[in-house]
Amino acid sequence: MVMHTVAHAMIAEGSATLADKTDAVPTVLHLSGDFPDSIDSFKTPVIRSLLDLTRDTFLHRVVSINRKSPSLAQLLANTAKGLGRPKLAVAAEPFDSGIALQYGAPGRGIFHATMLHQLGDWLAGEITDGQRPDLLVGHKLAIEGIAIQRAAQLVGIPYAISIQGDTDTKILSARPDLSRILAEVFHSAAVVFPFSPWALKAVERKLGARRGPTVMLPCPTDLDMPMAPTAGGDGLVTVFHLKNYKRKNLPAMVAAMKLLQDTALAPKLNVVGGGSTAELARCQSLVGDVQGIAFAGAQDRASVRQMMARAQGFVMPSLRESFGLVFIEALFAGLPIVYPAGTAVDGFLDGLPFALRVDAGDPAAIANAMRTLIEDEQHLKSALAQWLASDDCRRFTRPNIASQFTQGLHSAMA
């Protein structure tokens, strides 16, 4: 049994939210740790955007999960109660898209599968108490996927999963002991939605090639109206919140700029993004006496798009990215990009001259790519202009993404 730490009335209210169903459209129940909810409203909006794009076709219900680490005393008590297997405690509250759920589980992957299997038990109980959805979807293989597969087995409903490369590949690498469980989740899913080609390849290297349907699903952006590239841009640009400077690899960009500062090229790099006073000071200290790097601060989305359009190229050799929506937004702003090999948009833009793939750990390679953005600006932007008018470009627009998602969900139900 899963221990419920919330009043029965609140659970009933949340269950009613899940149970609301019309005969006009199929019902899809999503389990996601990346959905803004009443517990944490600042999560990434990508999953919400996918659901918003397809609300005319499906009745979407969400169980938005929020993990909270128990204290050592709580963990020991729960483990004793479970005779060596800690019992899951959950607290649920309704919100506009379904149920916001907080569950207790230790960090660092301790009892990872144990707690998620119990979360699947809880979810199956909620489904059994209410009306059955037509499909379950878990929005990450290595976390939500474990729980959603357990629930699907218990209630006899098909399930699909998405693959978010950053988290999923980290867990696959850190927990080889979970390979059997994760392989079953991966291969038994009715449909798999990878957010990027590199992520699917990385998962298949660990778990074996998938034989079932797979639908590549780029993340949607509201900035998907192409702008005509214009030559004669003013320097290079990168965009990230300053608290993420390590992950976005500012140290390597600074090292690359240092390699170029004494050459005839001597480029400028505009760093766009907000941050605290301490975060800005840390980044400025990292830059030191390297010339040409300026911090533009936080900007609204329209201003960022205009700053991109006025630049020569976009540079962000991130160390980790599940998708990296900003790369697509830069392309749609008419800006050639430098992106990291083995992450972000890798696999989507192979062989295209305006998308320069670099080793994120090699400042010299990053410097050479920066040089190419500047010296070959006119050629790169001309090629980008042709791509922005092509069918290949449209795969990143919201109507196309909605169509792919819709077809994939229907296929999973079938």
Protein topology:
Layout: E1 3-4, H1 8-19, E2 27-32, H2 46-53, E3 59-68, H3 72-81, E4 89-95, E5 98-104, H4 112-129, E6 135-138, H5 144-155, E7 159-163, H6 165-174, H7 179-188, E8 191-194, H8 197-207, E9 236-239, H9 250-260, E10 269-272, H10 277-287, E11 293-297, H11 301-309, E12 313-315, H12 325-332, E13 337-340, E14 355-358, H13 363-375, H14 377-388, H15 391-394, H16 398-413
Parallel strand pairs: 1-4, 2-3, 2-6, 3-5, 6-7, 7-8, 9-10, 9-12, 10-11, 12-13, 13-14
Antiparallel strand pairs: 4-5
Defining key terms:
alpha/beta, eight-stranded mixed beta sheet, six-stranded parallel beta sheet, 14 strands, 42% helix, disordered N terminus
Structural write-up:
The model is unreliable at 1-22 (pLDDT under 50). Helix 4 (112-129) packs across helix 5 (144-155), helix 6 (165-174) runs parallel beside helix 8 and helix 9 (250-260) crosses helix 13. With 414 residues, this protein is an alpha/beta fold. Helix 12 links the parallel strand 12 and strand 13 (337-340). It is built from 16 helices and 14 strands. The strands form two sheets. An eight-stranded mixed sheet has the order 1-4-5-3-2-6-7-8, with helices on both faces. Strands 11-10-9-12-13-14 form a six-stranded parallel sheet, sandwiched between helices. The chain has helices spanning 8-19, 46-53, 72-81, 112-129, 144-155, 165-174, 179-188, 197-207, 250-260, 277-287, 301-309, 325-332, 363-375, 377-388, 391-394, 398-413, and strands at residues 3-4, 27-32, 59-68, 89-95, 98-104, 135-138, 159-163, 191-194, 236-239, 269-272, 293-297, 313-315, 337-340, 355-358. 42% of the residues lie in helices and 17% in strands.
